[in-house]
Specification:
Pfam families: PhzC-PhzF. The chain has four helices and 14 strands. By secondary structure, the protein is α+β, with helices and mostly antiparallel strands. The protein is globular and about 50 Å long.
């Protein structure tokens, strides 16, 4: 079996929760796209990252069913693990900085496929949702405290690949931040925390805590 690390990205304030991410530090051990897709499906994480150049931050990202040009939580996790100032993805160059307990990336909302951002009237409605049928990537959200920018969210990929709900979804958080034009403090899934802030030129900063699980 190929060696890989497991991180939890966007952990809560006490280090719990977070979305598990697989990182293959030696991407040359799995060189082909077909092999990478097969391993990502076998591991079953929402995303798996293959590192092709750790010093330059060149990475390749896969869900269990598709290759992605960009994804938020894999970039936060890989940026933290590699401790580099930037990551190179097929979508573009992602800025990285570590500030205390948070790792931040800077990316553009159009780099990821569009999600259906579905607003609800209350956090309770979001929490009571059942997993919808496969088909559309749905980011369900509601303000917990609109004045403070506190949001309750859940993410449903709808891909039919075994990942029915994402515990934390960075790309959707970036797109919501861009749409609302304001900084957000998002609680997603069972208790993951994502922080965002719009930047000049339609860039968005996304930050969270990362823990090395194994």
């Amino acid at each position: 079996m190929t060696d890989y690390d497991v991180l939890r990205v966007f952990c809560g304030p006490k280090g719990g929760y977070g979305n598990e991410l697989g990182v293959v530090r030696d991407g040359s051990a799995v060189p082909g796209r077909g092999e990478r897709q097969e391993l990502a499906a076998k591991l079953g994480f929402s995303e798996t990252v293959f590192v092709d150049d750790p010093e330059r931050g060149i990475i390749d990202i896969y869900t269990p069913s598709v290759r992605l040009d960009f994804a938020g939580y894999p970039c936060v996790g890989a940026g933290w693990l590699l401790d580099v100032p930037e990551l190179v993805t097929p979508a573009g160059v992602v800025g990285v900085r570590i500030d205390g307990e948070f790792c931040w990336i800077e990316a553009r909302p159009e780099w990821a496929p569009a999600r259906t951002l579905r607003r609800y009237a209350s956090a309770a409605e979001v929490e009571e949702l059942e997993v919808p049928p496969a088909g559309t990537w749905i980011y369900a959200w509601a303000f917990e405290d609109e004045a403070a920018g506190r949001v309750r969210a859940r993410g449903f990929p709808g891909r039919g690949d075994g990942v029915e709900e994402d515990e934390a979804t960075g790309a959707a958080a970036i797109q919501l931040t861009h749409r609302l034009g304001r900084a957000l403090n998002i609680t997603q899934g069972a208790g993951s925390q994502l922080l965002t802030a719009p930047q000049p030129g339609d860039w968005v900063e996304l930050g969270g805590r990362v823990v090395l699980e194994r």
